Structure formats: structure tokens, C-alpha cells
TrEMBL record:
SUPFAM superfamilies: S-adenosyl-L-methionine-dependent methyltransferases. InterPro entries: DNA_methylase_N6_adenine_CS (IPR002052), M_Eco57I_C (IPR054520), MethylTrfase_TaqI-like_dom (IPR011639), N4_N6_ade-DNA_methylase (IPR050953), SAM-dependent_MTases_sf (IPR029063). This is site-specific DNA-methyltransferase (adenine-specific). The lineage of its organism: Bacteria, Pseudomonadati, Bacteroidota, Cytophagia, Cytophagales. Its EC number is 2.1.1.72. GO terms for molecular function: methyltransferase activity. It comes from Lacihabitans lacunae. It catalyses: a 2'-deoxyadenosine in DNA + S-adenosyl-L-methionine = an N(6)-methyl-2'-deoxyadenosine in DNA + S-adenosyl-L-homocysteine + H(+). Belongs to the N(4)/N(6)-methyltransferase family. Keywords: Methyltransferase, S-adenosyl-L-methionine, Transferase.
Length: 524
């Protein structure tokens, strides 16, 4: 799939366009004519499939902001009943109501939209009694506007990012869909349906009128199962009525109730600690340098040690000075260029700053609003511990026994009075908390798990106090492990039984649920 960041174009594979088109048209098998709107035709994948329909008289309205793509798509339509119009869908005006709105809307974040598009999006959302908070990406506005153009028995069929199911700003959109449509169908996929790095997608079918009402979910295991209609749509009322992300629709009501009852008994990360995002440099590749660059420009008096990525600290629950030295030897960037307002600029430092200015780093928004573009604000003392917001096999919480700072790839953790850091880190590594990390967080293509600040703060932890000797033993075992499951097997009963009264049967159940969630995220 071609990915065009400026326009947010993610082109739909023909087999997926075929499945969506056939499913929509089958709903109208007793009709002889219908009207279809495609608000962003792209390469015309849906038009090619709709053109194959011989039993229906389709009146097609096709829009796109790109004149070249619109012309290419128009050549894929052989019938007379169609109009192709070059227009931004946000500006499109019509009194017509359509039987179907179908397509793959662009995915463009708000900060890339023009000021006109942002204002139009706000107006479209406001007209539907939606808040400005739901205007985060243009696909949400396409979804809202598409609904307003549907006939009273119409169908909406869109390829969308999985954000719809899991991110905070989409909660309002999900509620909106539930009130506007009698039936919603969500198709998630084990494989990335598009050859596009990092873009996880779903398919949404929304019916204005339906005999079987409600929200239905299915997970497609392969392209073959999609093409052969080898799937079952199931309701999950508890999921829809709760705050659980819709990505977890494959969990049963019993499983969700079991987890929820355990959560109620626990305090959260925010009860035990204060956490804040790490340092925002605005240009990590410039402000975080390796030892060689530091020496070449005589910058040692201006630098402090820093951890740039969670990828650099695999394998332990303690980060110390030896770890910094190892990263240096491996030529990782470990030096933060920390300049102050009153620093004298040496000749060699000036040479390095000139390199940054040639790259126009001073023009970046976060640099531009500083008094001096190269002085990074809000650099606090080294954190006691850090939690990396993105992870792969499992989330990482580490004690900081070094002098290193950390970038905003992590949250800085400081314990509240009455709680012990070693015990907090030990308590974190149990099956229930890692399971809840999967539930509370969101995931992206490639299996990346992310917890935003609010999700990390509300993560429940069964806290168990341990001694210094116990923590040293835990640290040693963690470093020797071959996988995280070894640690969970050793920790689970010691943490979860005294805090929650969990028995071996409950532990097995939690393990099965976590494995199910992890398998879905990693597409194993």
C-alpha cells in the first residue's frame, strides 16, 4: 500500500475493497437502484469493485481532493450514472441523501491540517453535538460528515485506523456511532491488511436500520477467511457498556467481569507514585549525542548522561553507571546537550550550534518558542525510576541507580510518602498488572504497546512490601531470565495471593487472558 503522509492516503487492497463492496451491496439485493457516495476515491479500488455490479443501477458520486487521482479513478467506472468531483469532502455541499457512503478516508492528524480544515472539522463536529476534543484526525470528521449524508436506511462502510477502538478521543465517536446506528459491525485483523508500517486498520459497517440490533465484533485470521466469509460476528454487551477498549472484543463477558472485580480491590500507580513525562528536546538527534561527538566539539562541560530509548535498557530492572558505560562503548548517544541561558558559547560549541541551524532546528515549533532555541527547558533532577511508555514483549519499569536523565520516551517516577521504590518495582511484575497494561494501553502495527500518561497513572498494582535482600534476589533473577514468563511464575503467587487472595486456578485464568491479549497484539 502506498502511504502519502501529506494527504493521509492509505490505498485499499482490491480483495478488501471487494469484500466491503459485496457485503454492502448484498444488503440491497431486493433493490433495483441506489445512490453511493465515495468521499475520497484515491486509486479507485472501491469504484473498480462497484463497477462489477450488474443487477443494481448505481448512481455514483465520487470525490477527491486530488485531480490526478480522481481522473485515474474515473476511468475505472464504465457506467453512465456517475459524477466525479474535485473537492475536499469537508467543503462538499449537497442536499442529497445516499444509500451508502463507502471508502477509506484519509488519516491526517490535526496538526497537519490547514487552518480552514480545522475550522470546518470543528463546525461539522459541533453540528452533531460533538466536542472539539474529538477533532484529532481528519478520519473522525469524514466519519461524522458521512453519517449526516446517509438516507434513513443507509449504510456506512469505512476502512479506519484501529484508533477508533482504543484511543481516548475516539470514545466520544464510539458513543456517537451507537446512538446514530441500529447495528454496528467491527472487523479487526490478525495481519496488517495494508502493507504500511505501523498502520493497524479495522473495517466498520454501520447500519441505520437493522433487524438484529447492537454492536457486533469479529477478528479475521487471514485474507482467505475474509474472502470465504469464514467468520462469526458476536455481540459483546459488557465491553460496549464499559470503558474497556473495543480492541478487546474477543474477551468474554465472564473474563471482563473477573478482571474488573480484581481491579476494584487495587490502588493504582498514581496512588503509589508521582509520574511525569521525561525531557522533550524537540530534536533528539541534535541534542542527544554520542561520546565521539562530545569529544570532537569539546562539549563535556555542557552534557549530562541520558537514556534516549527503552530499547537501550533491555534485560534488567535496575539501570546503573555500568549500563551507561556499556551504551557509550556501543557508540549509543548517551549525552544530553544541556545549555543554560547564561552559558558562554565556546568556539567549538558555536560550530556545533551552526550545524543545528543549517538543519533549521531553530525553526521547529518547540525550539522557536524558547528564549534561545538551544536551551532546553524543564530539565529536572534525575528520576528515581522510569517507565518506558512503549514496549514490545512486556512493559518496562526500572530503578535508576545512575545519574542519567531520560527523554519523553519514558515517564519519570517518584514514590509518594509511605511507599518503597524497590517494593513498587517488584510488585509491578505480575501477570495481572501486565494483563491490565494490555487492556489499559493501545497498540500499533508491529505489536508496539503504548500507555499514555493517564493510562499509566490509572494502572492497578497489587503492592507487596519486600526487603532489600529480596529485591537484590529479584534483580539477579530478572537479569538471568530467558523470558518474562519465568519472572511472572516466580512472582505471581507471592504478590497476588496475599494482596487479592488469588489461587492457582485464578492465576491460570489470568495467564490465559494475558496470553490471549498479547497474542492478538503481536499477531502470533
Amino acid at each position: 500500500m502506498t502511504n502519502q503522509k501529506s494527504t493521509g492516503s492509505y490505498y485499499t487492497p482490491s480483495y478488501l475493497a471487494s469484500f466491503i463492496s459485496k457485503r454492502v451491496l448484498s444488503h440491497f439485493e431486493n433493490r433495483t437502484r441506489m445512490s453511493i457516495l465515495e468521499p475520497s476515491v484515491g486509486d479507485g479500488a472501491f469504484i473498480s469493485e462497484l463497477d462489477k455490479e450488474e443487477n443494481l443501477n448505481i448512481n455514483l458520486t465520487a470525490l477527491d481532493i486530488n485531480k490526478v487521482e480522481l481522473k485515474t479513478a474515473s476511468k475505472k467506472w464504465s457506467k453512465k450514472t456517475a459524477s466525479f468531483e474535485k473537492v475536499d469532502f469537508l467543503e462538499y455541499l449537497t442536499e442529497k441523501q445516499f444509500s451508502v457512503v463507502i471508502g477509506n478516508p484519509p488519516y491526517v492528524k490535526k496538526n497537519i491540517l490547514t487552518s480552514k480544515q480545522i475550522e470546518l472539522s470543528k463546525e461539522i463536529h459541533a453540528n452533531e453535538n460533538l466536542t472539539e476534543a474529538s477533532v484529532k484526525n481528519i478520519w473522525t470528521t469524514f466519519l461524522v460528515k458521512a453519517n449526516t449524508l446517509l438516507a434513513k436506511n443507509g449504510i456506512l462502510a469505512f476502512v479506519l485506523p484501529s484508533e477508533l477502538l482504543q484511543v481516548k478521543f475516539a470514545e466520544e465517536i464510539r458513543e456517537y456511532l451507537k446512538t446514530e446506528f441500529e447495528r454496528i459491525e467491527i472487523f479487526t485483523f490478525n495481519d496488517l491488511m495494508f502493507e504500511c508500517k505501523g498502520q493497524d486498520t479495522i473495517v466498520l459497517f454501520a447500519y441505520k436500520k437493522a433487524v438484529q440490533k447492537g454492536e457486533f465484533f469479529t477478528n479475521i485470521l487471514s485474507r482467505e477467511s475474509l474472502e470465504k466469509n469464514n467468520f462469526v460476528l458476536r455481540k459483546n454487551n459488557l465491553l460496549v457498556e464499559s470503558n474497556v477498549k473495543w480492541t478487546h472484543h474477543f474477551l468474554t463477558s465472564d473474563e471482563l467481569t473477573f478482571i474488573d472485580n480484581l481491579k476494584k480491590e487495587l490502588k493504582t500507580v498514581n496512588d503509589y507514585s508521582d509520574s511525569k513525562p521525561g525531557i522533550v528536546t524537540a530534536a533528539n538527534k541534535f541534542f542527544i549525542i554520542d561520546k565521539e561527538t562530545e569529544e570532537n566539539y569539546n562539549l563535556s562541560s555542557y552534557t549530562k548522561p541520558i537514556i534516549q530509548k527503552g530499547f537501550f535498557v533491555n534485560g534488567s530492572v535496575v539501570f546503573n553507571e555500568d549500563d551507561i558505560q556499556k551504551l557509550e562503548k556501543n557508540k549509543r548517544p548517551t549525552k544530553l546537550l544541556q545549555l543554560n541561558e547564561n552559558d558562554k558559547i565556546s568556539k567549538k560549541l558555536r560550530e556545533y550550534l551552526d550545524i543545528g541551524e543549517l538543519k533549521q532546528i531553530q525553526e521547529r515549533y518547540k525550539c522557536k518558542i524558547r528564549n534561545k532555541w538551544y536551551v532546553i527547558p524543564n530539565i529536572s533532577e534525575k528520576p528515581d525510576a522510569f517507565f518506558f511508555k512503549r514496549s514490545h514483549l512486556y512493559p518496562k519499569l526500572l530503578k535508576n541507580s545512575s545519574n542519567a536523565l531520560v527523554t519523553d520516551s519514558a515517564y519519570k517516577v517518584k514514590m509518594r510518602n509511605g511507599y518503597d521504590l524497590n517494593s513498587f518495582i517488584y510488585s509491578f511484575y505480575n501477570t495481572l498488572t501486565l494483563l491490565l497494561s494490555e487492556l489499559e494501553g493501545r497498540y500499533y502495527g508491529g505489536g508496539v504497546l503504548e500507555l499514555i500518561p493517564s493510562e499509566f497513572k490509572k494502572l492497578p498494582i497489587p503492592y507487596k512490601e519486600i526487603s532489600e535482600e529480596q529485591f537484590e534476589k529479584f534483580t539477579s533473577e530478572f537479569e538471568k531470565k530467558t523470558n518474562i514468563e519465568e519472572i511472572l511464575s516466580a512472582n505471581d503467587f507471592n504478590i497476588l495471593n496475599p494482596t487479592l487472595g488469588i489461587n492457582n486456578e485464578d492465576l491460570n485464568r489470568l495467564t490465559d487472558i494475558r496470553n490471549k491479549l498479547k497474542k492478538k497484539r503481536l499477531r502470533n
